Amino acid sequence: MPKFIEIESKSIIYRHRFKDNWFWVRYAINPYRGCQFTCSYCDALTEKYLIHGDYHDFAKEIYVKRNAPFILNKELKKFRPDVVGLSGVTDPYQPAEEKYELTRKIIEILRRNQFPVHISTKSDLVLRDMDLLKEMSKDSWCTVSFTIITFDENILAYLEPSAPSPKRRLSAIKKLKKAEIQVGVNFIPIIPHILDDKNNIEDVIKKTSKYADYILIGSGMTLRSNQRTRFLKLLKINFPELFDEYKKMYKNRTDPPHQYLQKINYIALKLCKKYDIKNYIEPPDFKVVSPQQTLIPTDDFIKENRDLAQHLLLIAFLKEYKSGNIHSNWNYHKAAERIENLDENILKHYHEGILTDIPGVGLKIQEIIEDYLLTGTSHELEKEMTIYG
Ligand code: SF4
Q: Does the beta carbon of 331 lie inside 6 Å of ligand 1?
């Protein structure tokens, strides 16, 4: 049994500088630090996320932000409603949640304030909150992503020793789908040389695609700082034949080489097409509602600009996925960010012929924007989608 350490947090909501085009999150909330699921590939062990003195205590000491709901109620007033990622770092439905119910309280506050939510978890405890998620689905937007990296229980004994089984997760996916709550799979990370054979990739896609709305497939498992040390130790003891393979593959880098990512992404895309499932989440569509009218304008242009920005981000996602390089289309991210934060309608820039004054907008993106403003979509997006034929 871990030790629960109750702490008072000064701030609870974190605003990302750039909107993420995998999960569509603008904000992150982490009610707990430390995680009881003890996954051996856990990235949250790296120093940049860690608040534990020693990373070995990550699953033994769970820091509980008791005042999170109170702080959130105050902090939300500063922000424009947009998608909140629950959590950014640790699992919001780890066993601590049964006792503290912080995630539930946070969702309730977000729902009241019309903030959409993207929940990422390995636990079917999320089913407890289906009542709130159903209401959010109707009033704004929500999605739940379950991590499933394999159905092979023997390998999972090494990789996710304390998490609920993928069968339980799949059963929860079916229940959410039946309740008409958007639900998908995080097939992240595909662990090199252990889970990257075509059979495993196909098995996960085949079993989940019948029920999920999407499958996000991440081939770029990072290895850094404490997480690297711990994972390589696990390899050395349990998969000694792979130790040198990893040294060759990662060398001094934190990510697998680009050619590897491209190869795995290609296999994943072909299989997504075979099983007719999206490898991306449709951009969130939700109203601009502001309970704090004095602080935030609610004119329609905010939604129009946001929809266009998300259109550009989706194009970037599809291009980056195929190329295996998540930074290859940075101008799209830059342009989307500026467009989403314009204080006037993008149409004004279009009519005045000054679209390229927006940072990140070159001739190619200008063409896409013009196409989108005239037709509500773009040839470029259609071209990138051809894989789905
Ligand atoms: S569930 Fe997520 S945060 Fe928790 S140990 Fe596993 S990878 Fe880390």
A: no
Nearest atom, ligand 1, residue 41 CA: 7
Residue whose entry in the numeric block shows the structure tokens 């009033």: 139
260 and 318 share a domain? no
Pair 107, 200 in one domain = yes
Same domain (yes/no): 88, 208: yes
Banded pLDDT at 291 (limits 50, 70, 90): low
Q: Is residue 380 part of a domain?
A: yes
DSSP for 205-219?
HHHHHTT-SBEEE--
Ligand 1 in reach of 13 Cβ (< 6 A): no
* Structural tokens at position 279: 């490898």
Domain hosting 341: range is 300-388
Stretch 214-233: mean pLDDT, rounded?
94
Together in a domain, 159 and 224: yes
Residues 26 and 154 in one domain: yes
Give the list of residues 6+ apart from residue 292 with CB closer than 8 angstroms, or none. 77
Query: Which CATH number goes with the domain that contains 51?
Result: 3.20.20.70
- Expressed in angstroms and rounded, the spacing between residue 384 Cα and the centre of ligand 1 is 32
pTM of the predicted protein model: 0.95
Cβ(35) – ligand 1 distance below 6 Å? yes
Of 375 and 298, which is predicted with more confidence? 375
**Exposure string over 77-112, b if 16+ CB within 10 A, otherwise e:** eebbbbbbbbbbbbbbbbbbbeebebbbbbbbbbbe
Check: CB of residue 266 under 8 Å from CB of residue 217. no
pLDDT reading at 228 higher than 50: yes
User: Does the CA dihedral 245-248-253-258 come out positive or negative?
Assistant: negative
Assign 319 to helix, strand or coil: helix
* Residue nearest to ligand 1 atom 3, measured at CA: 90
- Number of domains present in the structure of the chain: 2
Cβ of 39 less than 6 Å from ligand 1: yes
Looking at the structure, tell me whether residues 216 and 351 fall in a common domain.
no
